Amino acid sequence: MSEAAITIGNGIPVGNVIVDPRAIKGAGSWYNPYLYIPIKIQMYARNDGEHVALIRLTASLHLTEIIDINNQFGDRVSYDLLYNMPNRSTVEQRASIGLLSDFVYPWLAGIGTLRIETAEMKWTENIFPNIGYDRYRLVEVSLPTSDILVPQEAIDYFQKAKKYYDEGNNIECLRECRLALEEIEKHLSVQGHKLGTAITKKLGWPDQPQLTEQAKFLDSTWVGLFMLANAASHTPSTRSLLPADAYTGFLSIAVMLEYLGQLE
Known about the structure:
This protein is α+β, with helices and mostly antiparallel strands.
């Protein structure tokens, strides 16, 4: 539980703000995630005939306890609480605030920093599922580099494919992926898209009485990758390409190139 005092004037406390990290929830979706942080406001009792009301609350998240725009996380949000003044001080015999009441806006009103302990937040229960992370996982793929199996020309085409993928240009992304695959086939003298067979000769893998399981995998998988990447240059495929096609093709080829870089 985190609390911060609401003060006016020379630090005179008139209430406090409370945040329970365990009640913080994720909201939105994978493409628009945000945190729902419930804030409880308590106003202290005042003398008869006096009221202090909170009419606006502004909040922002920061990576440290020092409030600075350079460590701000997300946008600043403001809430107008003037209507019906739900957050005002009380007296033993509660009086209403009517049209004849006198309003004064005190100077130097402020709220202290609320420290949120992220370890107390229920990430797996309240946050990740509500923003789609129960269905998504981040996968780390090493970007390919030139080696004995992957020429520099293929890397150059892959970098162009990455640029088009980031821009959302599905057709050009797959077209550059196809050019990257063609460079690898040219480099290894691949016949009939049999990449595993060509690598067997290049690395001296055994081929009797049959190819290794890795070579069989490469032979069959390479054909599928080539077919998907080739769709960017043929109709009617170019008319029906989806973002999922570019995503699947680009990510699969990135994983394949990483795999080729580890073979020996």
